[in-house]
C-alpha cells in the first residue's frame, strides 16, 4: 500500500498577513487510504497530545497567503491525499495543526445529553458506558472522572439535589394524606427542623391488614443515597437502628394498625427492636428470624456452621416433639455449645413447635429473598393468582402424601389415620391433627386429606379463612390510585413554606458501599466442586480422570 510523507507545522501563530509563523516542524508517513481517525491518531502520537484532555484542529494551506482548508472527516482526508499525489514533495501542502483545550466536552454538556437514559432508575448505566456512548455518538474521548461527574449532573437535573428533596417532603406527605383519606402519615423533626423519621401507612394497607394473619415482619434495608438511613419493610424511613427510632416506629404502627389477638412480630431481634416491641407491644410474642439466628451461631461457633445447618433449619420447621428431640440430640452430639446457645435463646423464639402463637410459614424476616428463591415462576403472576397458586401447591402436596394411608373412623368428626408405621388422630370439628400441621398451617395435612378423599369432601371448607378467595380479594379491595401530577397539587402556604433540613451526616471515607455486607455464614459456605462426567467422582474432570486413562 502506497504511503505519503507529510510535513506538520505546529505550535505557531498567524501573522497579520495571514501567514503561519513561529512554528515547529515534524513529519509523519500517511497511508494512501487512511481515515480521519488514522490521521488524528498519527498526529497525536507524533506531537504527544492526550486526546482525552485536548482537541486538535487540522488544516492545510495550498498557497502561503491563502485561507487554510480544514480537514474534519474522511472526505477531507481523501481530498488532501489527492492533492499530495499531484505533488508528493515533502514540504508541499503542509498540515497546520492547532491543539486546544477540549472545552466542549464538559460534564454539564454530557450530563444533558445522557439525562434521558437515566430516567429509568432500574437501569445500570455506568461511567464506562457513558464513555463508550460519548465516543460513538460525539466522537469525543473522555476520561472516567468526567463521565462520573456528567452522570451526577444528569441525576441532579432529573431528581434535584439531595438537600432540596427534604424540603419537598411536607408537600408530598400533605398530598398523600388528601389523596388517600384515612391514612396514617407522620413526620418527626428535631428542634432545629432537621429530618428524623417519616411513617407512611396508606388507608388501603390498614384496611387490608384486617384480612391478614396477625404476623408483623420487620426488616430494614439500608439506604445508599447522599444521606444514609434505613428503609423498614413496613414502609417507613428510619434514621438508624436505635432505641428511640424503633420505639417511635412501633408507636406509629400501633396507632395505625392497632393490636389484635394472636398477634406476633418476626425480626432479627436487634436489641433496639426487642426493647421497642416490649415497650409498645408488651402482650405479644416476638419471634426470631431463623436465618439471622443461624448467622449468630456460625459467628460464635465456627466449626458447626456447615454440618449442622440443615439440621437446624429442619428443627425450626418440625411439627412434633419427637422429631424435634431427635434433631436436638444430633446437635448435642456434634457441639453441645450450640445446643446450650439455642436453649438460652428460647425454643419458643425460633421453633414452630414451641411457638405460643402460630406463626404459619413465616420463619424468617427476609421476605424478598424467600419469595425470589422459592417462587420463581409464581412471583410473576398477579397477586390473586400468585396466592391462589401457592395455596393449591400445598393442597396438591398433601394430597400426594395421603395416597397409601388407611382411615378408621371413631366418630363423625374424629378419624384415625395410619401410614408409614405411625397413627395420627384428625379432628375435623376443631380442624386439628396430632401431627400439628393442620392447626399450624391452617390447611388440611396429608392425614386430613386422606379422610377427605375417603368421604368425598372438599378441602376448601376446612382451610383457614385467610386462604379463601373472598378473604384474599377483601385484602386488596381498597384501590390505591396514582397521585395527581405535581402541577395539580394544591398545597397550603403554611405547608409549602415548612422547613425540613437534611439530617446531620458525616460522610465516611472511601467509596460508598452499595451492597450489603455478608455475614460469616455466607462467606463460610462451601463452594460447588466439579465432578467427573466419566467416573462420577469429585475434585477432577474427565480430562484428568485416571479411571478413563486405565480403561483406554
Automatic annotation (TrEMBL):
Cross-referenced SMART domains, in alphabetical order? ZnF_PMZ
Instruction: Enumerate the Pfam families for this protein.
Output: MULE (PF10551), SWIM (PF04434)
Q: Secretion signal: which residues?
A: none
Ranges for domain SWIM-type come to: 415-456
Q: Which InterPro entries match?
A: MULE_transposase_dom (IPR018289), Znf_PMZ (IPR006564), Znf_SWIM (IPR007527)
Keywords assigned: Metal-binding, Zinc, Zinc-finger
Q: Name one GO molecular function term.
A: zinc ion binding
| Protein's UniProt keywords contain Metal-binding | yes
Query: Disordered: where is this region?
Result: 502-552
Entry protein name = SWIM-type domain-containing protein
- Species of the source: Solanum verrucosum
What taxonomic lineage is listed for the species of origin?
Eukaryota, Viridiplantae, Streptophyta, Embryophyta, Tracheophyta
